[in-house]
Design a protein that fits this description.
This protein has 4 helices and no strands. It has 108 residues and is an all-alpha fold.
């Protein structure tokens, strides 16, 4: 989506960016995950006019999915030499999950 090459270098690190196949893989991963995140965002925008139970279920599903993704990042991706994952990279995801949980518990 935005700056896939730069994001790929940030994901795999400067040392691994010299490998063209690895850089291409990270760039393609960025394209794929960008559209998945856009889909989640559009889904959350569209549920504003749904029934309360439907909207709460969608928020809960988003929160569970984000928690699973962050768990994968923290366990699998942080332990591989190919990815240079740090907590700072997950801050936007953590904030979005927090907002969705806030909306889930405060919905009236």
């Amino acid at each position: 989506m935005l700056m896939p090459g730069d994001m790929a270098v940030a994901a795999i690190g400067e040392a691994n960016a010299t490998n063209p196949e690895l850089l291409e893989m990270a760039t393609l991963f960025h394209y794929g995950i960008g559209h998945a995140i856009s889909t989640c965002g559009l889904l959350l925008l569209m549920i504003r006019k749904c029934a309360l139970d439907t909207a709460k279920n969608a928020l809960l599903a988003y929160s569970i999915g984000t928690a699973l993704l962050l768990t994968l990042f923290a366990t699998v991706f942080s332990n591989t030499p190919v990815m240079e994952f740090s907590l700072e990279m997950a801050v936007p995801d953590i904030l979005a999950a927090g907002v969705s949980l806030f909306g889930y518990f405060k919905a009236k």
